[in-house]
Hints:
- The structure is a single chain.
- The radius of gyration is 23 Å and the shape is globular.
- It starts with 22 loop residues before the first strand and ends with a helix.
- The longest helix is centred in the last third of the chain and has 30 residues, at 456-485.
- Helices cover 48% and strands 11% of the residues.
- It folds into two domains: 3-281, NAD(P)-binding Rossmann-like Domain (Rossmann fold, 3-Layer(aba) Sandwich); 285-485, Orthogonal Bundle (N-(1-d-carboxylethyl)-l-norvaline Dehydrogenase, domain 2), CATH 1.10.1040.
- A hairpin with a 2-residue loop joins strand 3 and strand 4 (85-91).
- The protein has helices at 32-36, 38-49, 64-69, 104-112, 142-148, 156-169, 186-201, 203-212, 229-239, 285-308, 314-318, 321-335, 347-358, 367-371, 374-391, 397-410, 427-435, 440-448, 456-485, and strands at 23-28, 54-59, 76-82, 85-91, 94-99, 118-121, 176-179, 218-221, 247-249, 254-258, 279-281.
- It has 486 residues and is of the alpha/beta class.
- Helix 7 packs antiparallel against helix 8 (203-212) and helix 16 packs across helix 19.
- It has 19 helices and eleven strands.
- The strands form three sheets. Strands 5-2-1-6-7 form a five-stranded parallel sheet, with helices on both faces. A three-stranded mixed sheet has the order 4-3-9. A three-stranded mixed sheet has the order 8-10-11, with helices on one face.
- The structure holds D-mannonic acid (CS2).
- D-mannonic acid binds next to helix 10 and helix 14.
- Residues 182, 221-223, 295-296, 299, 369-370 line the site of D-mannonic acid.
Amino acid sequence: MSTEAGLHAxxxxxxxxxxxxxxxxxxxxxxxxxxxxxxxxxxxxxxxSGGDWGxxxxxxxxxxxxxQLAPQDCVYTAVExxxxxxxxxQVESVxxxxxxxxxxxxxxAAMAAADTRIVSLTITEKGYCHDPATGRLNREHxxxxxxxxxxxxxxxxxxxxxxxxxxxxxxxxxxxxLTCDNLPENGRLVKSIVxxxxxxxxxxxxxxxxxxxxxxxxxxxxxxPATKPEDIDDLAARxxxxxxxxxxxxxxxxxxxxDDFVPDYGAGARPDLAVAGVELVEDVTAYEHMKLRMLxxxxxxxxxxxxxxxxxxxxxxxxDPVFARFVKGIWRNEIIPSFTAPNGVDLQVxxxxxxxxxxxxxxxxxxxxxxxxxxxxxxxxxxxxMRDNLAAQRPCPGLITALAAWMIYVSGTxxxxxxxxxxDPMAERLKDVIANAPSLSERVPALxxxxxxxxxxxAGRIVEPVTSAHSRLMENGVxxxxxxxx
Length: 486
Ligand code: CS2
């Protein structure tokens, strides 16, 4: 069981079938999600309408993806896992791959190349080096501090600004910054982070970016669990070829993008995404609320509660009737009433489809994976909905219980006293806050007092219900707590 080519030495390595397209996009954060999503749409757009939109993938830190993809000329298999079978597809839109920490200059040069018109990002929430509660650049972030005094950056904001600076100096227009992360108003957010950084470096550069740059907001959706070593071995056994980096994904996909790309390039500003099924709209806000609140909000809720109830995957969790009832209840009573639906979308139909997607047992999406980085995810997934419900005097016991489950989760010990491997950029801080607040009556307010996550006004209003949900979970366990809510 391994991703090592050595164990598959008897098999031929996956190889490119078609000519390599010319590069037009640099993508920061070439993980499983973008390879199963954006890279597939872009390949379809090029196949149908042409254009040079080959993708130069960049891993900011780890050389792993490069080590897996480079020996197979950057091509890989996308495995679509439906409830009743799978479809294989070889993706060929990635044309090169780089590791930023090994050669930051090469990454800046690729981003500053005249042919690069888009820099897209899937660097996860924490990659933006911002303060999740305010959406502003975190100037105390160690990588941001380092990047402000070095021309060879470590952080994504550092790369964006240094590459834009180089384009300006070369007399080139900026590239469009296309964020594909699950953040609220992601386009506006990345714009304000880039401008905050640029202003600290050179106010004139900041003005140039502000007037000439474009940062369209997007809504991205496809469930893509991390590829496991056994997935690689299974695929090799079935196909008789070795692919070190396949991606596994659900059939569903949806990409909504604000059609606001750098105007200097005219029709050459972006691939013909519409032919591939991308929805190009004027404003993504309603789609974003629908997706972040309905999908990601319940995903995180199910992840913390499901994990504490002993469930390994989301599919296992929602096939437990207690959880199915719970999730339907929060959609109906707490999430759907909190925002306005996109035009023509029936949110109850969307919720029913989500439940079927979550229940797809071919997708082994671990609760532990989704539970990661909660400090960066809670505001846009759960807290905004909670705030809107409180403003409308609507109770939201389900989301309150999910938040209490997160508090238990980040304590690092589950309800049976077993250790939890908590992965979160704020893990140490959370542990300290909990250690200094031994009693429950101190713990909940202490956690709610973390300003990077919780707005003070909301925090002040939920101390009591969260404390009571926390003690019910500790005393009665997850299942009895959810049953009592029904
Ligand atoms: C998940 C998302 O890992 C997580 O936190 O909630 O990655 C989710 O699978 C995608 O946003 C689906 O589009």
